[in-house]
Amino acid sequence: MSCDPLPVIDLRQAAGPGRAQLASRLVAALQTDGFFYVEGIDGYDEHELMTYTRWFFELPDSVKMGIARSNFNPATNIRYRGYFPVDKTNASHKEGYELGSLEPLVDPEKHSHNLFYEPTPWPEVTDRKQLDAFKEFSVRFYGLMTAAGMTLLELAAEGCGAPSDKLVNLFRPDPVSTLRYLHYPPRQGDIPASARDPTDGALLLCGAHNDSGFLTLLSTFEYEGLELQRADGSWMPVPCRSGAVVVNIGDMLSTISGGRWKATHHRVIDHGVDRYSVPFFLEPTYSANMSVRLQDSQEAPREPVSYGPWALTKMINDYYEFRDLPYPQSLVA
Ligand SMILES: O=C(O)CCC(=O)C(=O)O
Ligand SMILES: [Fe+2]
């Protein structure tokens, strides 16, 4: 990983004569930093995103808890999508609201028997107009991030000399991507030991981790605090860049690249202010085979491994907000 400022990928160039060059620059960014900025996303408006993010988190706690997962509110039967509250004892100090795809499923039966396709619950608010505007925005934003992610994956494949649709094919049908609205209140009062990064004692809002899916497209607005870990173990701030999203690689894309592209560790530091961010986790269809490789390799043939059960195992083991989910053996593919 370099110490230079992170590369910038301008998606406007994907539609013009500079596409091949953009694809090469993207592959270079995936290989070196694993973190880069993407700008030029058609229709992306971070002010609008901020307005809706705040609107959600300013709802009364009772309304948010009404759509909390059942491990946080036993009165709901929500297990995967929906709201999770702050846990003051955890390395991560955040509340969040997670939404799945709002497109009709090719196979609607999946809604009833597969966690990843659980319908997104909406907050019960009296002002229906505001709720409708929030829903309309969220559907549109989910679509924008999906489209930007698909373009990045096509470019990544092209930049490696693979067929353009090699990666995007893994998203058909019914991808399980997650749109996550996040609010991190600053820590106050007693600080638990878990709130300090064991590597350097920094005060955390989100502990060091790497993401699971293909790519994460993250909006950080003007809130600093995100840091990535360099190969030598040191931490580097990722400055905010107006109008751009920060993109990093998840474990699945790292695996499919044969480990050449790294899913870089990152964390969020507490700077003493309320912080908002909106990651979009670009995830394939539930049964996407993680054993495919972007390019021919000398490795022995591998057994197919489905994304869904693998991702769920990681979530249960690594993230407090999912620790009570049922194990994948109980899922139907
Ligand atoms: O809030 C941020 O800036 C980072 C969030 C993140 O890394 C995550 O939710 O996986
Ligand atoms: Fe992350």
UniProtKB/TrEMBL annotation:
Residues 175-284 form the Fe2OG dioxygenase domain. Pfam families: 2OG-FeII_Oxy, DIOX_N. Keywords: Iron, Metal-binding, Oxidoreductase. One of its GO terms (molecular function) is metal ion binding. PANTHER family: 2-OXOGLUTARATE (2OG) AND FE(II)-DEPENDENT OXYGENASE SUPERFAMILY PROTEIN-RELATED. Belongs to the iron/ascorbate-dependent oxidoreductase family. This is Putative iron/ascorbate oxidoreductase. It comes from Amphibalanus amphitrite (Striped barnacle). The lineage of its organism: Eukaryota, Metazoa, Ecdysozoa, Arthropoda, Crustacea.
